[in-house]
Amino acid sequence: MSTATPFPILINGAWCASADPTGTFQATNPATGELLPGTYPVSGPQDVHAILTAAAEAKAAMRGLDAEVRAQFLDAYAANLEAAKDALVAAANAETGLPVEPRLGSVELPRTVNQLRLAAKAVRARSFARPTIDTATGIRCQQEALDGAVLVFGPNNFPFAFNAIAGGDFAAAIAAGCPVIAKVHTSHPTTSRLLAECAVAAATATGLPAGALQLVYRIAPQLGFEMVESPAVASVGFTGGRDTGMRLKEVADRHGKPVYLEMSSVNPVFVLPGVLAERGDALADEFSGSCMMGAGQFCTNPGFVVVPAGDAGAAFTTAVIGKFSAANPGVLLGKGGRDAISESIKTLTAAGATVRCGGNPVAEPGYRFENTILTVSADTFLKNPEALQTEAFGPVSLIVIADDTAQMAAVAASLEGNLTGTIYSAVDGSDDDAYAAIAPVLRGKVGRLLNDKMPTGVAVSPAMNHGGPFPATGHPYFTSVGLPAGIERFTMRCSYDNVRAHRLPAELQDGNPLGIWRSVDGDYTNA
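The structure corresponding to this sequence follows.
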């Protein structure tokens, strides 16, 4: 362990040395297994108390802040990220092993910048507020910020776009008008620190309240649960593993707080007979590329594929096995992920699946796992669907071989909730009957239904749903990607009954001084 002075944490908008560190840590380069420069503190109770105190004081300042300041901060932060691109991308590459191009430099960082600017646009348009006026009763309402901070837990697989101090949950919470306490992922502390420095500079330039931005690198799990319990925290945004998510949900539910979790998804893909006859080879290419992209470390990675029994399905499976075997294993985000894949494969094989290629960690410096395909019959799957839906977060997929359309539909009916579900069908219409039998069943199991398109990747679109039924997320109504819908998670419905005109928020005043779209007596108008 390094003896260097640990980097400070962000409390009340200022960089401060940890008051009571319980230890220190360094990030690891997952491509080599070597420790990276930079020592970071493991924060103790005093740090957490100071953060919660600052968050409690900041909520009133954020509530009274002109919304335009929030928008200006989001725009300024986006510009700062663009200016710091080279340093950010280099740090993220070292800490995650993800490629500089195109992944980090041309895809993920621009997406993160875009999210911030879309959040600023939503603030100015008030599109998340949904102002509603009923002139007959004199009652008006809109969505306004929750009464407290949003505690955001960031994942390890998206160092920019889902980072607790820069990603979608962060942008949505600030846009709503809530302070943010960012518990960044310990796999990329330097990336997170550089992001936070850009955020602090933007906050200083635009006048965002000091306590609106706070960051901690690592804390004991119990302190995380105590933060959720604190009156200073109004809501939680979490992206990560199911076990941790469920523990957070238990605490949040016990205290009546909304908690938004993205936890687990195998993202089922159904391949119908006609499409295999039409373009089976091309589909094998498409699927293999999607599953191994980024070493399979996408929450929308297609980890579960249902194919018809017979020659066409067997040919598809053989082609996929060949492509998985021939491709070099990608770099995983860390040792924990590599070890978790091994445990998941043990669970799958114990439940009846057969490893057809791969199945082992790669014995070389750094963290990699062999590209892996398992197969199982639909009969076996239907006898033990829970274990055979175990997520292996990496370049791993389970192929389920079904006898007919009815059995495919039965597999769909036995699925847990997922972020996505995909059906590949023939262009000539030969699969239409099968599609009609499977799609209605699958529709209720997934947040996003796709046709003839792999699910990997999530577009930042107002129409996007990056959510789904449990256990994909903790609540099927909400999305963590896509604005303005993502902002609504961190708001509450605020009704005004017989409140005098000059005391109403500008969004609800008769003259519509902001010129925004509102529902007035059931009609949408910006008059």
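The chain has a mean pLDDT of 96.
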